[in-house]
Amino acid sequence: MLNLLRLLIAVAVLSGASTQAQPNPYRTVENWFWLPEGRTWGSTSAVDIDRDGTSIWVAERCGANSCAGKTDPPILKFDASGKLVTSFGSGLFLFPHGISVDPDGNVWITDGQGRDGKGHQVFKFSPDGKVLMTLGKAGVAGDGPDTFNQPDDVAISPNGDIFVSDGHTPGMGNARVVKLSKDGKFIKQWGKHGSGPGEFEVPHALAFDSRGRLFVGDRANNRIQIFDQDGAYLDQWKQFSRPSGIYIDKNDVIYVTDSESTGKPGYGYNPGWRRGIRIGSAKDGSVTAFIPDPLAPDADGKLPATSISEGVAADAQGNIFGAEVGAKGVKKYVRR
What we know:
It is a single chain. It is built from 1 helix and 24 strands. The chain is mainly β. It has one domain: TolB, C-terminal domain (Neuraminidase, 6 Propeller). β15 and β16 (about 225) form a beta hairpin. Mean pLDDT is about 95; it is low at about 5-15.
């Protein structure tokens, strides 16, 4: 049994090395976005691109890692030059977590925590900040057709159906994907805790490819799972490491960010894999580029719980934006 375990670890190390030998054709741009005077970045995991292909939407946690008791509007829109052009959502959120901009330009945000009559919800906003729809019950954690428990992300299919990944704690609470109609009516759900096909441990990210397949970042299982829109299991990919965020552009270029992998046993254990952003093809699963996390393990082999980006998006020019929880803020990556 010990020899088998050593063999499996060796295979994982070699697999990780093969997708970390890819080139890094990007340079990092710090402090691209400008916040109003007196305001600082909070932890940020939600970033997406507006339907114009150039503007960037961000949801940050009110200068900290929670919006509890704060009045800062956490939903921010920046133009291509990094200038803030609109903000909204004051007082509505505890823990902005996932984001999706639909084809009509509406902005969907998940609130990944809940207490005191707030949270465990999904909000749909118009581009100017009007609340158009809420899903879930404010402050109520549940596993029913109209409740969530730590919803991670939201994605909108081409026909308007709504998909929510639900559950942020390994082995506890929910571990599912919920499908609803465009008007918010429950259709179905799938998933439970586990590591088999169609099972999840922290379904942290969602994205659709051009074929309408749903990619789920099954973070604590160190894999992406791929489904059709009825929840039928199609495939799993491990070559993109431990996925915190997934973005797929109109050309099926896939961007996957790993903010947690560590070689130390325990949470985040993924031996042989380095944190960073992997870029490749959603068509064939190839990995073609790798932006490594600038942080390296300390002398004891330790890293912070999270580093580099948890959320990721790319604009029409191929510039990459990484939303960071630990470092707080959003970095821009441009081709050299």
